[in-house]
Amino acid sequence: MFEFINNNDDRGQVGIGTLIVFIAMVLVAAIAAGVLINTAGFLQSQAEATGEESTDLVSERIDVTTKVGIVGSTSDGTLDEIRIGVAGAPGADQIDLSETTIQAVGPNGQESLVFVDNSGNATSNLASGEFAVKDANGDFVSNPILNEDNQYTIVLNPVVS
Predict the structure, then answer these.
(1) Residue 139: φ, ψ to 5°
(2) Stretch 103-113: mean pLDDT, rounded?
(3) E strands, 31-116, where?
(4) What is the helix, strand, coil percentage profile of the chain, to 5?
(5) Is 111 within 8 Å of 129 (Cβ atoms)?
(6) Residues contacting 20, CB < 8 A, separation 6+
(7) CA angle (124 as vertex; 118, 125 as ends), nearest 5
């Protein structure tokens, strides 16, 4: 059943072939491990970026505290001004309201509103697509940075919106 090989040259050739196959398998395994490690690193960095983005979307929020419509004329009930009280959500970083866009949706359509520095002016000076910001004293603010220590009032002119 088992055959004995007495020729030493034939024995060495079988051992070298096995060694070559073993080295080839080790090389293939090393390349596969490198690809897996590279893919894992890429997925980890992508997951970290997604996690940070999700955290920003959840925590960098603005909480609306009040909503008030100021009626200009009691005869027709038309609003002269809409005031929206805002504060930073708990745990939120500073939010620059001058970089904020408000999406106003109403029965006559929708409009994107952007900040305008209206310091010292009346609400009636707000053009279509604009909003201004007042501080706690009722003064218009030119650089509204919302944080956990302060609150602002966003002012809209509904007549032009």
Answers:
(1) -95, 140
(2) 84
(3) 62-71, 79-88, 95-96, 101-106, 109-115
(4) 35, 30, 35
(5) yes
(6) none
(7) 45
